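The protein record passed on for reference:
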Amino acid sequence: MFQPELRRVLEKVGRTSLGGFNFFSSSDSDDNTEHWKKAIDAICDSAASLSSTKTGALIICERKTKLGEQIATGTILNCIPSTAIFGNIFFPNTPLHDGAVIIRDGIILAAGCFLPRPQKDELINKQLGSRHRAAIGMSENSDAIVVVVSEETGNISVAENGELTRGYSKDSLKRLLDNRLLPEKDANSIRENSFAGRVISKWKKVKKAKKENRHGADFGLRILSIIIAVIIWFALSITQYPTINKTITNVPVVFSLDGTQAKEKGLSALNYKDISVDVEIKGMNYEIGSYTAADLVDLDIDVKSSHSTDKVTVVSVNPDTVSVEFDRLTTKTIPLTAEAPLISAEEGYILKETTTSPSEITVEGPKNDLDNISKAVAQISKSKKISEDTTINTQDIVFYDDDDNVVDPSKIEVKDTKSVDVNFVIYKKKRQQS
């Protein structure tokens, strides 16, 4: 009935507690307390161990907001947390070490999970690595507690509500997780002046005043909860999940000739490297709002997002056609000479000869262009008077045809030679006998 994005909003609202009262399901936190106690001990022990060896780790402690989308991207484990399990998962170069571990109800549900990007990625400290950015993004999109161990420094950090705090020890991490994840302490963390606190207070008054009609009070509270959920849904739909159109300029075009007649005939595209287009895309603001040209790939036929979980629709590509030249690429070896019109000998000396090293160069380019080249010249444009043998380095190589016209070098590449040494041999003049 709803679009997938709107269903996700309702799912998030429906699974978020309002002062300990869940809109659509009952809580099993009492049954899971012992699981969480053991899981917290394993997380803290593992974080300290991984920190000592500077082994990167990313651990998500799921709370009321269910992380079904992220779990679907990983590998289901469904195992009891332990130091050995975490050590095996995050050991460098293992299949799951780059992803996140997600813990639900004190049990490791999945590993190797991919997390959403932060909503304002450009505002985050550039020194933070990919794990810390993923942790911030996950905590922005849910009420999860995210534990991060840096593989650069070994520091232990925690992301919550889009904020990253750093410098945790084993003991301080345990205090935080106990406070956030164990039900009895979590209930005490609700502030009396918060919206949730006022709802709870009102609820208690209703229960006390109408004990004889308890079921009726519960029904009224459920109706109130549904109304609040609808209001939040509308607010999120307008502010966080609007569909927008965005134009990204200067997107580079990448060509693939596989399976084409040009490939079969040995032809290559010549001028495509400088071709770019403007792409208009459509999607959710939180997904495409920060997109740049680097986030679009495969622009030969279809435009796709480099973020596989984002839902992006291409509205238009301008221009929708491009012109490309094709030719056979070949190589040619050409003798190399030097031109240095502003280099001269000091008085009393003569410039005997000028040579180059290397004496010839190999170039690659379209066959038609290479056939027009008759000579290559290393040019020295600086002015200098010299009195001894001198070598000057240059990267300025000019190609000429048989009529001494300059050949366009834009499609020609000099192979194996980045620069040329021009050698000037100086002789001293003999003095005349009087």
